[in-house]
Structure prediction request, 555 residues.
Amino acid sequence: LHLRPTAEDDYIDYTCQARHQAIPEDRPMQATVQLSVLYPPGVPYIDGYNPGEAIRRGQHVKLACRSRGGNPPAQLIWYKNGNQARMAYRTTDRLSENIYSFVAEATDNKARLRCEANNIMATKILKAEITLNVLFAPTQVIVSGPSEARIGDNVPLQCQTTASNPAAEIKWIVNGKQVVNASSKVVASPEGGWVTTSNITATVEANKRSLIAICHGVNMQLPENVQSTHTVNVLLPPGPPIISGYTEGSIIAEGSKQKLMCISSGGNPLATLVWYKNDKKIKSVSKTTDQSVSAELSILANVTDNQAQYRCEAHNSATEIPLFETKVLTVHFAPETAKIRIEPAELRPGIEATLICDSSSSNPPAKLAWRHEGTVLEEQARLSLRSPKWESNIMASVRSRLLAGTNNSSKAGLWGGTVSSLELKLNITQDMDGHVYTCQSTNEMLQRSINVAVNLPVLYEPQFSPPAETTVSGVEGAPLTVALVATGNPSSIAYTWTKDGGQRIVSSGVPRIVSEGPILNITKLRRTDAGVYTCEAVNSQGSAMINITVQVKCK
Prediction:
């Protein structure tokens, strides 16, 4: 038997029978062979989806690719957008099947699914293709536009959907009313589907604190919609700020605490409050309630606060120029320093000197007073005018020596205070050297004082204190010491001793007669030592001389 097998011969049984008289006729001897014919598979086909059919995002999809015939059975492979998606397949007899199951996503829209069939006999790859049509609604809508506006402003708003298939429609609701005839534009999305954009202009109405716009994105073929709300705050200026806690003209003592409260009501948004001191921004503590805002300032009053302008400004997005209120503080403060000047710089007996006390700024002006040895000098002068005659003479003597007159003056000082000066004119005498004069500067309102003192440096020539005796006696052969005392200013005094107006006594070698300043030592008297000894004291202001007679008693 000679055959030219075809695909129809595959799986065909051929039987050869041998008949013989010895073999029962109903049971002939036979042999059977089944042909296995290699041939290419049939063209694949896809079940589970019809071309143009619409499926929804989230829908479970089951696609079966089948190929009949073929020996060996066809190998079936799924491809999605050119990428291998599933290779597993099964065969039953001469039927091959590959099941591809998935949940439809928006990205599956326009996806190309291809099933390929192949075996060793195929001269070309056989395939079947479908293009999916997936319906999906937008996942969100995005509303953009200004967040603040003034009454009467025309506010541009835009709403844009994410991709949708088919294109979504946009519906606007502004302040509870639907916007009709809103224009929209649809463009293809690179990811598939369509993007819808709509623009409207809404007018801000009076007596409303906000404009609320709601955008709905609706896919008419799906029971889904998304929405987004955009709020435009209506800008309203705040109420003018009010400062409480201080009445202008009230007195604040230096070092005391003062609180100022600034409050502003209303406005949308609520005001931002800022404190300034003389145009310099300062920190404060703010609190907000439903309809007002406050800012508290706590001050430890000092000299810089006197006549300082404290300003509270209130502003929000609706104000081009901040609203403000100011308070000018009045602070009493004592002088911090005082100093004494002496004119002329060098004092000598017989001249008139001026002591000038300058007190630093004070509010109210400081009261200045001169004191000497615990006595207020101005009181001395007044006492001398109303005392009995004998007392007047005494005080007149004191006044003629100490007080020639006073002169008080003042001028504007720092921080709105007053700088005060008080002059004291003195007739300088020698015995005033080293006397202490004190200037007291007092802020009587605060009961605070400062004191500054000066020692008068009166320059005068040396003067010897009168010795107990101007004649001293000694015994021949015994020691003798003559001790004198001289004072002067400056206190650096040079002493010179001479005898009988002649030779100067100079210590040399191991002298018997030694002069040490105002002291003369004779270690062993001789008769020739008798005579008149002169001691001269000299400083920068002049000199003084004193004579001492030395007598020697013989044994």
